[in-house]
Amino acid sequence: MHLTVILLNSMWAAIFAAGMAVVFSAPAWALAPSFCCGFIARLARDVLMGWGADQNLATLVAAAVVIFIAVSIVRRSGVSSIVMLAGIIPLGAAGALFRAIVGFLEVSSLKGEGLSAPDALISNLSILFTTTTAIAVGAWIGYFIGQSVRQEQHV
Amino acid sequence: MPPEEMGADVESSFAHQSDAKVTQAVTAALDLAAVVLQSGGSAVMADTTLKNVLKGYGEEGVATVYRQDFIVASSFANGQAWTVLRPLSPAGLHLVRASEAATLSERVARGEVITVDFESQLGRIKQLASPYNRWTTTLAAACAAAAFSRSTGGDWRGMGVVLVAAAVGQLVRALLQKRNFSRYAVTFICALISGFLAVAGLRLGLTAVAGATLIGSVVYMVPGVPLINGFVEIASGKHLFVGLQRLLDATSLFFILTVAVAIANSALRTR
């Protein structure tokens, strides 16, 4: 994928993250950081995938980076890092879950033809599971690194 | 807090002779943890909040159980075992409130907030309104949906369709939430409206990118946060059940979204 396309998609992901931050009632000062986190999340994932990394590994690293940045930013303001939650939303597998449920609805009406539909359903469910697990584990890693750095600085 | 003030919120089995200080500490901790859970925080964050408050009150060694609809705290004091149950209303998303609750708990743990202050601070947090009015939230949801459709392969005209579909859906969503409709009903009705508008755009030939347009039109309601919270809770190893509850809840909402969009798609196809 070209760098221009990656940057453009990252920009849309950033707008998505900032918009969702408003929907989630994040404080106004957290909108710009959420925008940046959304941009970095998608950029990191796409760049890593461009270098040949597996999608789940790329998502895990991107989530860890974003949460680490979020924890570092809010450390200065003294509030909880939850206000930056919207930053990792662009990494989610909403599309895969949506397709999985559509596939689930279609599977019930199959009559011998279209045997690839169950495969697609399992594939989409698998993408959803692995992607969300990658986000959760990445978020944990980023959070613990951020907290460790914080504690070292306090010591 | 006097027992009569706890009202229906708390089903308690306190013995009259149990230490009022313990009661006060646990009630305060449960109140703040409930705010975190009801505002979009995970059980991991709620548990940290609860333990911070207990630490501030000098009461540790309280066992807790988290579920999506209640929290239970249990301990052994003055020779008696007691349990407090705090029912929870359905969770929403209010990150300012969750953040303020977590920050207050840290201040309590450091001893910066005294008991009297805690009550007023808790009341203030519970009364916090969203920093954005209905129109700002509608515009933000519409822009977020449009940006999502574009980032997942949608075209410019599809982006316009999604913008309108999400804006109308979010506006109706805010109105229904204000009238205390159930979450599932709100999700279904709004997904149906957004889905109809998106499918209409596709049928009128405004765009040909069906996937990005249909998913984008309802993405502002996608329960991504409960899904991530559920996985975080399961990954923590301590909150398996509440994590599974959240995953089931998120899947139910996804299912409702999909069914609503499928109905919109079928209804317009038959015309």
Tally of helical segments of chain B: 11
End-to-end separation of chain A in angstroms reads: 44 Å
Helix content of chain B: 55-70%
Count of all domains of chain A: 1
- Principal-axes geometry of chain B comes out as elongated
Calculate the mean pLDDT score of chain A and round it: 80
Number of domains of chain B: 2
H/E series of chain A:
HHHHH
As a percent range, the share of strand residues of chain A is under 5%
The total beta strand count of chain A reads 0
CA distance, first residue to last residue of chain B: 62 Å
Strand order of the largest sheet of chain B: 1-4-3-2
Stretches of chain B where pLDDT falls below 50 for ≥5 residues? 3-17
Total number of helices of chain A: 5
If you average the pLDDT of chain B, what whole number results?
Answer: 85
How would you sum up the major sheet of chain A? none
Q: Find the count of extended strands of chain B (DSSP E, 2+ residues).
A: 4
Structural classification of chain A: mainly alpha
List keywords for this structure.
heterodimer; A: 155 residues; mainly alpha; elongated; B: 271 residues; alpha+beta; 4-stranded antiparallel sheet; 11 helices; disordered N terminus
Structural commentary:
The complex is a heterodimer of chains A (155) and B (271). The model of chain A has no long low-confidence stretch (mean pLDDT 80). Helix content of chain A is 75%, strand content 0%. In chain A, helix 2 packs antiparallel against helix 3 and helix 3 (55-77) packs parallel to helix 5. The radius of gyration of chain A is 18 Å and the shape is elongated. Chain A has one domain. With 155 residues, chain A is mainly α. With 271 residues, chain B is α+β, with helices and mostly antiparallel strands. Helices cover 66% and strands 8% of the residues of chain B. In chain B, strands 1-4-3-2 form a four-stranded antiparallel β-sheet, covered by helices on one side. In chain B, a hairpin with a 2-residue loop joins strand 3 and strand 4 (80-87). In chain B, helix 6 (134-151) packs antiparallel against helix 7 and helix 7 (156-178) runs antiparallel to helix 8. The longest helix of chain B is centred in the C-terminal third of the chain and has 30 residues, at 240-269. Mean pLDDT of chain B is 85; it is low at 3-17. Classes of the chains: A mainly alpha (155), B alpha+beta (271). At the A-B interface, helix 1, helix 4 and helix 5 of A face helix 4, helix 6, helix 9, helix 10 and helix 11 of B.
